[in-house]
Predict the 3D structure of the following.
Amino acid sequence: MRKLLQLNSSLFQGGGQSSQLGDAYVERWLQDNPQGQVNRRDLAAEPVPHLNLARFQAFTTPEPERTPEQREVAAYSDRLIAELQEADVIVLGIPMYNFSVPSTLSSYFDHVARAGITFRYTPEGPEGLLANKKAVVFITRGGIYGEDHAQSAYVRQFLGFIGIQDVEIIHAEGLAVGEESKQQALDSAREQIAKVA
């Protein structure tokens, strides 16, 4: 049975445009995978805590030496990672906030980038350990910045860092420019869903 993990990061939760585009993809995916299993995580509704020194030390402390508090922190991260490990397809809904990804998504990334678990260092450089997965990313923006913007590059680089090389990014831009621009961008994104689903 194929599994899909949907990650939403819009402040508007299910009402956000990036979330709705992700929902449209998931609906199409389920048509093609009627026995498929979908796991959804809304990072606005249930934000991942900001990474601080105590949480980082919980990750780097050997398991037998962890305090009860550190074990709880590590177990939380382990659950997030397990969702990624089990998924065949990861769908991310990402609006642009202040030229980057929402802070909740950045915190999520901080909790799933774990040396020895999702990546490892080698003499040739870091190697991602989450191979053979596909990511479909919906990036929505009020303005028009282009597909080569640093936000898109960051998302692609992070996913590649943990081993996810098959990444499809669909942009919907100009959503705040005007109603016509918004509708054209959303219609174009939905047309692309049919091609990549």
In short: The longest strand covers residues 89-95. The chain has one domain: 3-196. The chain is about 40% helix and 20% strand.
